[in-house]
Amino acid sequence: MSWKRKTTGPRSTAERPLPRSVARLFPAPEASADPLSRWIVPALLIGAVAGLGAVALFGLLHLGTELLLENIAGFRPYRTSAEGGFRELVPSERPWAVPLVAAGGALLATAFAVWLAPEARGHGTDSAIAAAHHDPSGMRGRTTVVKLVASALTLGSGGSGGTEGPAAQISAAFGSVIARRTGMSRRQARTALVIGLASGVGAIFQAPLGGALLGAELLYRREMDARVLPKALLAACSGWLVFGACYGFAPVLGRHSADGPGFGAGDFVLIAVTGLLCGLAGRLYTGAFYAVHLRTEDRVRSVPARIAAPAAAALLVGVLGLLVPGVLGTGYGLMEALTDRELVAGLPVLMLLAIPLAKIAGTALTVGSGGSGGIFGPCMVVGAGTGALAWRLGEALHLPSAGPLPYVVVGMAACLGPVANAPLGVLVMATEMVADASLLGPGMLAVLCASAVTGRTTLYRSQLERRPRETAEEQDEATESRSGTAHTPNPVPVPAAARPPVREPGPPPEPKPTPATTNGTTMAAAGSTTDPVADPAAGPVAGPAVPPAAQPSSSAPACAPD
Question: Which site from 308, 420, 500, 561 is most exposed, i.e. has the minimal number of CB atoms within 10 Å?
Answer without folding.
Answer: 500
